[in-house]
Amino acid sequence: MYWIREVDGHDDEVADTLTDLHRLTFFDGAPIPEFELGHWWLGFHQMIPIAFAGMVPSTRAHNSGYFCRVGVLKKHCGNALQLRLMRAVESRARRNGWSSVVSDTTDNPASANNFIRAGYRLYQPSYPWGYPNTLYWRKSIR
């Protein structure tokens, strides 16, 4: 029913799809990422893109990927798509030779619970990059 595929953010059509999904899931709550950087995935229902995720090399944690975005259209929430996208991100991070994946959430209990379900642990980075109420997540993947 659902499937996930790593995609090329340099491809204009893929970047347009990622942009559309970002706008539909984040509205104006976050800037649109540079899709030509890092690794990106699309989640599909039948042949229709309904979710996305991205990871870039972390600039804050040594030898780590930064899980920079994940969005699932509301109609498809509750089908473990964020967890499946997290597994895809972690698999790519392992193939890249990274030792961990880091991320953050701010005022998003559903995503925070998914990080817990996926085995991420809260941590305090040396140089926090978010808001005072941001939660920071890390998972060792080795």
From TrEMBL:
InterPro entries, per the entry: Acyl_CoA_acyltransferase, GNAT_dom
Chain ranges of the N-acetyltransferase domain: 2-142
Molecular-function annotations in GO: acyltransferase activity, transferring groups other than amino-acyl groups
Tree of life domain: Bacteria
PROSITE patterns: GNAT
CDD domains in alphabetical order: NAT_SF
Annotated protein name in UniProt: GNAT family N-acetyltransferase
Organism expressing this protein natively: Bradyrhizobium sediminis
Organism lineage: Bacteria, Pseudomonadati, Pseudomonadota, Alphaproteobacteria, Hyphomicrobiales
